[in-house]
Amino acid sequence: METIKATILHNFLLAPIIFALIISQVSSLSSPARPPPENAPVFARWLVKQGFWGVLNTLDSARSPFGNVMSYSDGGTGTPYFYLSTLDPTPHYANVNPRSSFTLSEFELNSCRGKDPQSPLCAKITFSGRLKMLAPNSREGILAQGALLKKHPQFTGFPLQNGTFSVFKLDIRSIFLVNLAAPPRLLTVQEYYLAKP
Amino acid sequence: METIKATILHNFLLAPIIFALIISQVSSLSSPARPPPENAPVFARWLVKQGFWGVLNTLDSARSPFGNVMSYSDGGTGTPYFYLSTLDPTPHYANVNPRSSFTLSEFELNSCRGKDPQSPLCAKITFSGRLKMLAPNSREGILAQGALLKKHPQFTGFPLQNGTFSVFKLDIRSIFLVNLAAPPRLLTVQEYYLAKP
């Protein structure tokens, strides 16, 4: 009886430690294996693959910059795909002028521990290019929709009474990456696509 | 002896529950008292006061939209203030053309529990306006610098070998807020500034 009690006591002594260990494991799962920042192409592909949301920027009707929070997925390809609603102004702006940029911060991955979001040690990336709607039955359209729904299962439940959703891609023309020190790293689109995330 | 053991056992039975309660309390402290989303001005002021970082968008040299991750503070005033380095392109772009927008997501506050960042139930806000440098010795410049250093103490330690930092404000001309359902809420700049966060 004494032994059983001691075992139970021992287990409950360990319980908070085990709980803390589980939490830290779950946290580390959310951003596995941060690559060395010196390898800019691999780091950029990792950041985009792990990321979940960012700010998609277009030109509004007065040709002023308009940023809008959007979820995305690259499906492991490096290209950011979006699921945009006609109730949001962004796809309308892109139809008039496709010039766009998409920005995300490593801060959302919980891997910038202790670093301010504006610290050059907490990575940030901006892709500049053209925002284009994908034909729903095209090969890329089907791939993109699958990647979006896999990463953002809530998209299937978004109610739409007076609008529709379409899949868009950002056709990347240039990349701005800060992941170790300012000023930003030189990183070509070709280097980015050749890297493995 | 048996009673002491039972008490210890009882305490350790409660330990994981107490630990979980502490965690939930700490989490709720990070985003206190989310206002009702129906009250758009108060909600917007709350979101901006609690927020920590966002994406600041300007027009690049080709007049395309360029978003850049930036920390900010409003010092409780409603106006987003920034501490921008000359090593970053954003202040240079703003000097040529001050048209800017600043976007942030409630997702960073950890108060969108279970909601996708693109869900209309997880709030997002975009301020459109003009990005202006503040004179360092002006009343607003001193207030803004104090608010920025208070919220982002790491700013004091940012090394700068070939650049300088200046304080900027976003002079707000219009507000885009989604915090309950698409399409966005109507919210005037006057209503926003009259509200108490």
Model description:
The structure is a homodimer of 197-residue chains. The radius of gyration of chain A is 21 Å and the shape is globular. Chain A has helices spanning 2-29, 40-50, 89-96, 139-151, 189-194, and strands at 53-59, 65-71, 81-85, 99-105, 124-133, 165-178. The longest helix of chain A has 28 residues, at 2-29. The termini of chain A are far apart. In chain A, 34% of the residues lie in helices and 25% in strands. Chain A contains 5 helices and 6 strands, in the order ααβββαββαβα. Chain A folds into 2 domains: 1-30; 36-194, Pnp Oxidase, Chain A (Roll). Chain A has a 6-stranded antiparallel β-sheet with strand order 2-1-4-5-6-3. Chains A, B: This is CREG-like beta-barrel domain-containing protein.
What is the strand and helix layout of this fold?
The structure is a homodimer of 197-residue chains.
Chain A: H1 2-29, H2 40-50, E1 53-59, E2 65-71, E3 81-85, H3 89-96, E4 99-105, E5 124-133, H4 139-151, E6 165-178, H5 189-194
Antiparallel strand pairs in A: 1-2, 1-4, 3-6, 4-5, 5-6
InterPro entries (chains A, B): CREG_beta-barrel, Split_barrel_FMN-bd
Signal peptide (chains A, B): 1-28
Domain CREG-like beta-barrel (chains A, B): 35-193
Keywords:
homodimer, 197 residues, alpha+beta, Pnp Oxidase, Chain A, 2 domains, six-stranded antiparallel sheet, 5 helices, 25% strand, Split_barrel_FMN-bd (chains A, B), signal (chains A, B), CREG_beta-barrel (chains A, B)
